[in-house]
């Protein structure tokens, strides 16, 4: 009888790469190379002839991910990662002095992934000291090295799996000016740092003519960093010229104490550029200085068009790190970790040993890390570094170009890190993530001032709404038919790629004045979106009134109009409304509108009104919600639906503005509101209670947002310390049972932002969203008014499944995307939601000069407690084999292979049927052995 073996193991993949598109005559690459740092030592030699050829005898060690070299000539080496057949991939090496340029997909070295600036950083190191002389009539030279992202070598694209040319080249050059060519042949190493492993880095474009910074492409950086963290410095001062000089800040990182920065030119020119870095004396930033390797003076910098560089940050608490910051004058360790020794043996020369390690066991990363003396403004050193392994020691040289053909030894402080081929350095535990954007939503000519977003949990669709404050399209108000002065616009987007899937359309307008305070939620019962906003001076009384609209999802619209219904809430109100918010009950489709309203003698009151899914009003226009402090203001109302309680939770903050004198001032409060009216058609509002601790005494508590933690059922409330402050806290509550719903704190409050004014930045109006699959909650907010040089941006921090802030390499929140010119400080200027369809957080924000943007964040690492894998059971029944597993184990696929040497797993094609509490498949016995396993999909 055939053997049936069941593998009782659930296979959960890491962040996935694309499926390779294998051309005719080609072969597949190896596994997607995003799981580990990896390095390679390339041996490259010249000959007695100086031309376009090079000799590459082989690699002097590599790993843990295999490398290949699929095209090369003098000064250009197309390195590739994870070849499908690592042994065969070495076949095009060791061919003597040659220009290797075979672009056939059948070359094993090309059946690999090409490193991409969208997925990681590559740092090269010259692995041969000068002077180098091949006897080719060119004389001795001194090695310089950089990278290019414009390779002619073919391989597989890490973004889409296509086969073609592009990706990484290592450029090897020689210091000085050489009339024949700036290129040279010598041995070098390269180290790959994948963003999916969490390494902080990116590929920085040269400055614009105005000095603005950017990435070389929208996704050429790790999630959590924005391009505005690089600030180009005018040089010379007063010249209005930018290029060659920048400062790089990582939020909350002390550049003297927390870690090291390694950088390389990625400009791609044959005449290699040198990148120097220097930590500022106050630890706030690194100064980046870029020069041609031919520059013989400190103050000749690279032009803007040759200032592209990439960087990676290695924190001192990285796992298995061996290295540190070395003082050039005496070879001492300014700060170092791991077991190594280093000695200065002469001018610009240092001997380093790593116990039990040789040059074939790994490679060194080297980076000059000090200021050039006697420069104003301060510039990073122009020294460049190289090393080679001799007599059991790593000999490091530091040189500066002094003439067209010479580079003399100079003492220079530098960073050094050992990268082991078997056990490379890795980051501490923490979240891993990817990001997209920013993508401009509002069209050119639109002046957008607020924005909101709601996601469809059943399909890849998100509705973005924003207020066009000039009505660029000259839209007509759908209610009055008059042309609008301000318009609430909507547009559908695909949350997976942030691409628009509809044209902009009007939702509501105001012919008489402005519109503000828009909010939007999805109604899973009606398959529509509910949009609310406040129209100023709209009604016949000249008062401010809420506007309410229902917008069809695209599946409901079926190609017809998106706008289903729009109306004025409480058109005859004699008192003006202000801030509005809305939430939807997924139980019955009813939605609750909450709003501030002017109240004689107390400034503003807050009330609510319940509508059914079709927009029919169920309760009076205004039922008081601010019961705890009825004579004092309640400000910035918000509302969410609490699935566990089957009711709404209203939240607000108290204050005593507008001349009111309540007993509470700047506290977070809330109450439970039923999702259906009582038998008298009234809104049922429960006792209002505090949702914050009031500590420290005297500090404001404002602008709250709340979410029910999907992992433990607790209510999390995020609130700031008032307008434009650098502090914000999280509180945690259980809300009890009806009819009293007693709010009970379950743990002490913790800060999500804890700084001083302007440090790291100011903010207000936090927002919350949760990824239930990966165990992460995002707190999103605006970053403005930084006193320490951080940019205006949309920022965020991450909470784990317990609601506590997660560990981070940064001492301050992450940056999702810049907002040039500033980010609006109102809650209605930014928002964030989680899209189950794309498994990503989608953030929307509007900033100066009136542009609305989208950006997304995808968590790729799970932070939920491990779940025991489901156990497959097998039983023989007649001529069949019955395989079963628990019905609670959903989202899995049954795979099979006929051999395990090597395995060739593929989907079994067997459709499971439910029997009781188990899934079951029936396999007909044949004469061939088969193996089975479950994988996560």
The gross shape turns out to be globular
Class based on secondary structure composition and strand pairing: mainly beta
Report on the biggest sheet. 5 strands, antiparallel
* Strands, count: 65
Gap from first CA to last CA:
32 Å
Describe the structure.
It contains one helix and 65 strands. It is globular, with a radius of gyration of 31 Å. The longest helix has 4 residues. The strands form 16 sheets. A five-stranded antiparallel sheet has the order 6-3-2-13-8, with no helix packed on it. With 937 residues, it is mostly beta strands.
Summarize the structure in short.
By secondary structure, this protein is an all-beta fold.
Record keyword descriptors for this entry:
1 helix, 937 residues, mainly beta, single chain, 0% helix, five-stranded antiparallel β-sheet
Secondary structure layout:
Blueprint: E1 4-11, E2 38-45, E3 54-63, E4 67-73, E5 76-81, E6 97-98, E7 113-114, E8 120-126, E9 143-148, E10 154-157, E11 163-165, E12 169-174, E13 188-194, E14 200-204, E15 230-234, E16 242-248, E17 259-265, E18 273-279, E19 286-292, E20 309-315, E21 323-326, E22 333-337, E23 341-346, E24 349-353, E25 362-368, E26 384-390, E27 393-401, E28 407-409, E29 414-420, E30 433-440, E31 448-456, E32 461-468, E33 486-494, E34 499-500, E35 505-510, E36 515-523, E37 528-535, E38 545-552, H1 554-557, E39 563-568, E40 577-584, E41 591-599, E42 603-611, E43 623-624, E44 633-642, E45 647-655, E46 668-674, E47 689-690, E48 702-708, E49 715-720, E50 727-734, E51 744-754, E52 767-771, E53 776-783, E54 793-799, E55 814-818, E56 830-835, E57 840-847, E58 851-859, E59 873-877, E60 880-886, E61 892-897, E62 906-907, E63 913-915, E64 918-924, E65 930-936
